[in-house]
Amino acid sequence: MKLNDKKILVCNCERTMALDGNALAKALGADDCKVASHLCRSQLNVFEAEAAEGTPLLIACTQEAPLFIETLEEMGDAAPDASFTNIREKAGWSVAGAGDKPTADLTAKMAALLAEAAMEIPPTPSVSMQSSGVLLVLGRDDDAIDFAQRVADRLDVTVLLTPEAEAQGPLVMDVPVFRGRVAGATGHLGAFAIEVEDFQPASASSRGNLQFEGIGASGTSECDLILDMRGGDALFPAPEKRDGYFLVDPAHPAMALAALLELTDMVGEFEKPRYIDYDEGICAHASARIVGCSKCLDICPTSAIQSVEDRVAYDPHICAGCGLCAAVCPTGAAKYILPAEDATPGRLRTLLRTYLGAGGSHPVLLVHDGGWGEEMIATMARFGGGLPANVLPFTLNQATQVGLDFVLAAAAFGAERVLVLLPPDKRDDAPALAAEFGIADAVFDGLGYGGGRTELLDMDDPETLEAKLKDLAPLPGMPAADFLPMGRKRAIMQLALDALHAAAPSKVDEVALPAGAPFGAVVVETEGCTLCLACVGACPTGALADNPDQPQLSFAEQACVQCGLCRNTCPESVISLSPRLSFGDDARGHQVVKQEEPFHCITCGKPFAVQSSIERMVEKLKGHAMFEGPGKLDRLKMCEDCRVIAMAEDKDNPLASGVVPVPRSTDDYLREREELREMAQADIRARGLDADSDDGNDDGNDDGNEDGPEGGS
Question: Which of 155, 451, 531, 627 lies at 20 to 30 Å from 163 by C-alpha?
């Protein structure tokens, strides 16, 4: 049987589960389906023959995957690509698969699981982290030095003891030992930075307990790995999610030994998935230092998300991939991309459409992770009655990545219920997911489908979980819509909502939603609105818009994410939010909220303000001392250019300072000095000519001899 250019190999596992090959092939639209009974042992030759054809394989068995992979490796370059999926614990090993012939729901479920597994999933982008094996051991006594010495031959180890620590010096100082107080820490695997105060090295002449020398200094210690045995508070939030940081209880040496085993393997280059794709262009976090939405910042357990100058900064090296930020993001700026692109909603569509198309009924979607969830399902199948035939398991990297878009899409594709199985270490995240589920239930209830279609399961006992799933009562069906779930969160939600509304028992135009919902209206008190349009500049989604031709404010409800930036930015405080979901045609486009006629400058005629604002301003300031006198009140009716000109021409300008002197340069002074010199020379010449003229008109008494001392005697 072929599916999506892959050859499907199925096995009834020595007839421990009922499997109808003909019915399965029909459900998948294939010609036939050969069912093996012992593919991994006595029929291994069948597997080898199928692999020899070179067609990519999909093997419906995960338990014996190592054996099949080893067989393929022996084939060398001729071996085809192979992938694996589990239909035994997830379907066949159940009450519905215990007879000679499976039920219709069970066959439809197996077909759905195979169709989903046959999809081509694009690779997930990754980030690299480099570790050279520089280890910092933080401790309070001899145990820290002892454990550091155990790995000193494999890692570059340094020990930092607490200021009050008492420890004996080792006979051989093969690891450097210091004392100091840790003031803070940042970083990730391969790039940790530890701030240390009162830093002192151990004295080589210590007798008895270690002594430390020198004056305590402050500095930063850089390392690739950290083993924290101090027994106090962790250096990082959610320490178990910080790669390269190991927090162990010093009272339990076994924990430290287990950590050392992991630490010795953490040398080299490591590839880590890039869990989040962040689109800054549609983020509703902040504008002009005014904060709107901060959901991702508030919910991130590892502090991998920070606010930096009106934008959200994601550190992919610190991100642990819980997916909570993507689940609560109202705009879809944070998108979970493990798997990449639109693989998750595409898998969801394939699973549910195949199940319903094959005759399955009352589908219940059980979302779980690949660790805790897989083990719970396997335990139920091996030691109990297994999953009910209509419960479709859906594996995600993290169960906490389920958001409103996922739930709405699942319901639109036909899921009657969406259940999320939370592992014990994710129970603290339940309130955030419960809020998302509350919004979804409000939508379902408002459209007439009824609430109670979503639930978080925090059960540790497989028997309790099995009983819970078995006792689920059927609910009225949901629409089996057929749309391609492409794009970011907002686009997928809108497609799902349109499908839900089209088939809704109650085709209402509006559904009330709880506070915090990412849908709603912006309510503007138009009497107090001055059309300053500050809200338009702050709106990150374009829900609020202006009109370049006249003073106007319009609003498109379908684009609003209820981030609150417009409300927080409005200088008049006349904006409030109304969470709701509107299906009317008016919500799809911009509707005018307020508009007025523009006021034209009385001098040049340019429109520059709102007419009511100018009239109100003139009315309030007509008695003000600054505007007393003829023509002064008219300045308020002028545009910014004409107003400046009018103020400059006013002789009564209180800011006038007289004639402004013309700036003079060195050239001016030199030119002036030269002109004065020429004027002086001209004066001298003029005086000399006058003297000659006087001699020529002498009365004759001058004998031509110069008067000297003697002549003057």
Answer: 155
